[in-house]
Amino acid sequence: MPSIVTSHLLQRLQSLERFQAVNCDKVVYAFDFEELVIAKEETYKLLPMLQTLELTMMTKMEQVWKGDSQLMSLCNLNRLKLDYCLELKKLFSPALQQTLLSLEHLEVICCYKLEETFGKKETVDIQEAQAIASPSLGKLRFILHSTENPLRSLHYRKPGPA
């Protein structure tokens, strides 16, 4: 089982507020929307109502999200807990980070290969620069990162004067 939630199912979960998965040791991606096709004129976003996401004992999971992160909106996500996700390396792309307007609680425990929580892009165009300057993570109050290896990067810059 490469993913828990496929593109087909994900489209039907627009009202999902809480998602918890435990001990899914064959899962490589929690959410796979790589094959999702949406017309360019649509403003369709995935998981806009999700408030809590907890993934525990996902020993083979390499990524939480597989697909174009611009299709996602985690604007209501306020709690994220990852525990014992041994193969996870990166969590949020820069585009997905911009939708984290409500995130207050981030807990990462025993995710030994996690290198980036909030990713960065080497090249940024003007439109992306404006998006990066927009407020995100402004409500983040609690971060717990408990592993034997330190994060290589936690890229976050609060908007405001330099």
From TrEMBL:
Highest taxon listed in the record's lineage: Eukaryota
SUPFAM superfamilies: RNI-like
Listed InterPro entries: At4g27190-like_LRR (IPR057135), Plant_NBS-LRR (IPR050905)
Limits of the Disease resistance protein At4g27190-like leucine-rich repeats domain: 4-111
Transmembrane spans: none
Pfam family membership, one: LRR_RPS2
UniProt key word DNA-binding: no
Keywords: Plant defense
Protein's recorded name: Disease resistance protein At4g27190-like leucine-rich repeats domain-containing protein
Species this chain originates from: Acer yangbiense
